[in-house]
Amino acid sequence: MVRDKHEVASDDRAPSVKSDKPPKQAVSETLTLAAPAVPLASGDVVAGRYTIVELYGAGPLGYAFRATDRDERSVAVKVLHPSLVPTERERIAALTELEKLAGKSLRFTALPTDAGTSGRFAYVVSPWMVGRSLRRVLGAFRDAGLELPASDVHGVLRGTVDALRELHSNFVHGAVYPESIQITADARVVLTDAGIVGAVGRARWIEQLEYFPDVGPYVSPELLRGKPMTASSDLWAVGALASELLTGHAASVREGIAPAMLGIWPRSVSSALADMVAAKVGMRASAMPVLLDEIAKAIPAKTLPRTGNLPLQRARTEMVAAPIDGLNEGTSPGIALISRQAKHKRK
Questions:
Q1: Which domains does the chain possess?
Q2: H or E element: which one contains 246?
Q3: Rounded CA gap, 252 and 218, in Å?
Q4: Could you please report the per-residue DSSP string of 181-193?
Q5: Is residue 68 classed exposed, middle or buried when 0-12, 13-18 and 19+ CB atoms within 10 A define those classes?
Q6: In terms of C-beta distances under 8 Å and separation of at least 24 residues, what long-range contacts does 256-265 make, across chains too?
Q7: What is the pLDDT along the chain (347 residues), one digit of tens a residue?
Q8: In which order are the strands placed within the sheet that holds 74-80?
Q9: Which residues contact 187 (CB under 8 A, 6 or more apart)?
Q10: What is the DSSP letter of 68?
Q11: What is the CA angle 136-139-143, rounded to 5?
C-alpha cells in the first residue's frame, strides 16, 4: 500500500546546504549531482518506520541512505530524484509499480520491500547489503594505479549475468551499471535498484542521464531512440560493463572495441564483446555466453574482488553544492557515482 506520511524528520527540515558553488575546473574528480538539497539527515524518521542512520551515496536515481526499521534491522532507503517523479500522479504511478515487487525474493537481487511517499518525495526501501558497490571497487583500484585482476573481471561478469538470468524470469532491471552492482562481504554479486527505471518512465530516466555521463554508455541505443525497455537492454549494459572492466573505459562500448585496447585479452574476446554491443538486439543473448567462455579461457579461475581489503582510494566523493559530512562510503556499500569527467548542469 502506498503511504503518504509526513513524519519525515524530527522538524521536517532538510539539512543545510552551502550556497557557494565550485568553479567548473574543480568539478572533475568529484561526485556531481543534478539534485536539490539532500532531503534527509541522520535521526530523521521516514513514514514513522525507518530511522535514517547515514547518507551513503547518490546517483542518477536518487539519494541512498542506511536506516533502521522498527526492529532495529538495517535497511536501504532510496529517495528518488524529484525530477524522475515530479508530479503527484507520477509518484503514485511509480510507487504502485514498485509495490508489485514487494514481497518477492530473489537470490541475486535486492528487491524493494516497501515504497511510499513522504511529504513531496518518493522513497523505496530494500534490504541492506554489506559490501561495496562495483564503482567503489573500481575506483579504489584505479586510484592505486592497479587493474582489476582478470579473474575478478570474470567473477563480476559471471555474477551479473547469473543475477540477470534469475531476474529476467520476472521483469527487466533497467539500470545495470557499476553503482547498482554490489560486491557483498560474503563474496556475492547482488543487483540493487531493480525495477525503478521501469516504474518512473523511460523519458524521465533518459533526461536525468544528462547529468551522469559515466552512466550514459550503459543505456542501450534502442532505449535512447524511444523503444521500450527489454531484457536485451540489460544485456547491452552487460556489454558496457565488460567494456569498462576489460579496457578501463565504458565509453569504448560506443566508440568501438579495438583489439589493441584489450591488452592481455585474446582477439576472440574483442570479437565476442563487439557482438554483445551490436546494433542488432537479437545478437546479444547468443553473444553473452561466448564472451564469458572466451574470458574464462584466458584466466585460471573466477574470483571476486576482496571488498574488505581494497587499495586506498582518494577522497573524491564530495558533493557539488551539497557537501555532507556524514557520507561514509568506506563502511557502506556506496552507490556514489565517481566521475572523472562529470558535468554539472547549471541553470
A1: 145-297 (1.10.510.10)
A2: helix 231-247
A3: 11
A4: EEEETTS-EEE-S
A5: middle
A6: 264/150, 264/298, 265/150, 265/295, 265/298
A7: 444 433 333 333 333 333 344 443 333 333 434 445 788 999 999 999 999 999 988 888 999 999 999 999 999 999 999 999 999 999 999 999 998 888 788 999 999 999 998 877 899 999 999 988 999 888 888 888 888 888 888 899 999 999 999 999 888 999 999 999 999 988 889 999 999 998 998 888 888 888 888 888 888 888 888 888 899 999 989 988 988 888 777 666 665 555 556 666 777 887 888 777 776 777 888 888 888 898 888 876 667 776 655 665 443 332 222 233 333 333 233 323 222 222 333 33
A8: 3-5, 114-118, 121-127, 74-80, 62-68, 50-59, 45-46
A9: 304
A10: E
A11: 140
Report, in angstroms and rounded to the nearest whole number, the Rg of the chain calculated over CA atoms: 19
Take residue 196 and report the three cell numbers written for it.
525503478
Q: What is the largest CA-CA distance in the chain?
A: 60
How many helices (H) and strands (E) in the chain?
10, 10
Residue that has been written with the C-alpha cell 581489503 in this structure: 309
| Alpha-carbon span 53 to 127, nearest angstrom | 15
Q: Are 274 and 239 in contact (CB under 8 A)?
A: no
Total Cβ atoms within 10 A of residue 331? 11
* Residue 90: partners with Cβ closer than 8 Å, 6 or more residues away: 200, 201, 204
Give the predicted TM-score (pTM) of the model: 0.76
Q: Write out the three cell numbers for 41.
A: 539527515
Cell 576472440 appears where? 268
Cell numbers for 207: 533526461
Label residue 322 exposed, middle or buried (CB < 10 Å: 0-12, 13-18, 19+): buried
The Cα-based distances of 78 to 61, 155, 244 in angstroms read 8, 27, 26
